[in-house]
Specification:
By secondary structure, the protein is an alpha/beta fold. It has 13 helices and 8 strands. The strands form 2 sheets. A 5-stranded parallel beta sheet has the order 2-3-4-1-5, sandwiched between helices. A 3-stranded antiparallel beta sheet has the order 6-8-7. The structure holds adenosine-5'-triphosphate. Keywords: ATP-binding, DNA replication, Nucleotide-binding.
């Protein structure tokens, strides 16, 4: 029989290692990306302009963590660098983005109230010039910036600041989770000519890579023998279904907690299954955030149609043709866009398109995953 856990006993060596913002000491399988990012950042360490960069990859491929880790290392190396991290899901306007720059370079907690955008930028630029600092501005989830105008204004201000304020250097690291999105679409010629970013691609992890990353995290955060080799393989299998590394990290945390709650000293398959009903949403929630409005509406329609079919007792599901007709009538999505959007939803592992026999013969059915 398993030894009972006392109230103050825990199976976690360090629960922090499973927090969503935890930055691991070692990034496995990201040497190439870290090398490229370091190369692009390096000029900033000697007071020169860093190379503007776009980090691109599906959610959970390590973009944010790699950049944040690099920023903290680089800032430890020289005070000249002001690395400003902005989450554009939260700060979506040029004013709020430059407030972050101002706060960083002036060391205050908030920009003075009532300042106009131009005065805010000017105050930040004077501070940067005075202290001869280089600003590296990371715009995470850059596609969340309010609209095209806001994107153009933000980039234009940052990249042309040196023209008005001598000696000021600003570089941009933009992070985008949509592997298809062309960031240059919608940018003004003036912005494009100074932006011209290098691209660093973060590919999805294979099952073997996920396994090794989880193993390292378990070693850091959980006591030995709590998660057996078989259970770890099972966690990898479930995570691979979503393709999102974060699902497995969440699964580990939840299933260890579940074992702990039951006063057991090891995780069972039942703990993992129970945890998966919650953890799989980590993937869906993060991925939905990356969709454009049309893609999101189509995804919602597919869910709605599948639910309606189930309510009618139709076990066949909905065909691609049925979805396409309703997408045209209700969402005004034409034939070409429909197939483009479906392909993307499939690539993001949000839906499956399965060819199988139904009442009308062999057809393609569209199902929501999970
Ligand atoms: N190579 C890796 N080694 C160890 N941990 C990793 C690695 N890649 C990602 N992680 C972990 O996975 C989680 C998600 O990573 P991160 O937030 O950096 O992904 P992302 O690509 O920025 O996702 P999003 O696009 O949604 O912001 C974090 O907890 C991070 O520590």
């Amino acid at each position: 029989m398993n030894q009972l856990l006392q109230w103050d006993q825990t199976l976690f060596k360090d629960l922090q290692t499973f927090e969503s913002d935890y930055i691991p000491d070692r990034f496995l399988f990201r040497d190439e990306q870290i090398k490229e990012l370091s190369y692009n950042l390096r000029p900033a360490l000697t007071g020169c302009s860093p190379v503007n960069t776009v980090c691109r990859g599906l959610p959970g491929t390590g973009k944010t963590s790699c950049v944040r880790r690099l920023f903290s290392e680089a800032e430890g190396y020289t005070k000249r660098l002001a690395a400003v991290y902005v989450n554009c899901q939260i700060d979506r306007t040029p004013f709020s983005i430059f407030s972050k720059v101002y706060q960083k370079v002036s060391g205050v907690r908030a920009a003075p109230a009532g300042l106009s955008y131009n005065n805010l930028v000017s105050a930040a630029a004077k501070k940067i010039a005075e202290e001869k600092r280089v600003v590296l501005l990371c715009l995470d989830d850059v596609n969340y910036i309010q609209n095209r105008d806001a994107m153009n204004t933000t980039l234009f201000t940052a990249l042309r600041l040196h023209q008005e304020y001598e000696g000021v250097r600003v570089g941009i690291f933009a992070i985008v989770s949509d592997v298809h999105r062309d960031l240059s679409a919608g940018l003004n010629a003036g912005v494009l000519s100074s932006f011209r970013p290098a691209e660093v691609y973060f590919p999805p992890y294979s099952a073997e890579e996920m396994h090794d990353i989880y193993q390292a995290r378990i070693f850091q955060g959980v006591y030995p023998n709590v998660i057996s080799g078989d259970i770890l393989d099972y966690i990898v299998d479930l995570s691979m279904k979503t393709g999102d590394l974060r699902v497995g990290l969440d699964l580990i945390r939840r299933s260890v907690m579940s074992a702990e709650n039951d006063a057991r000293t090891s995780v069972t398959e039942g703990d993992v299954n129970q945890a998966f009903t919650f953890s799989k949403d980590v993937h869906v929630n993060e991925t939905l955030k990356t969709l454009k409005p049309g893609e999101r509406h189509l995804f919602d329609l597919i869910g709605e149609m599948n639910r309606e079919a189930a309510d009618r007792g139709n076990t066949d599901g909905v065909t691609s043709g049925q979805v396409q007709r309703r997408a045209k009538d209700e969402l005004n999505i034409g034939y070409t866009y429909f197939f483009e959007y479906i392909k993307k939803l499939e690539e993001l592992r949000l839906v499956d398109v399965v060819r199988r026999d139904g009442v009308h013969g062999r057809m393609s059915y569209v199902e929501v995953r999970g």
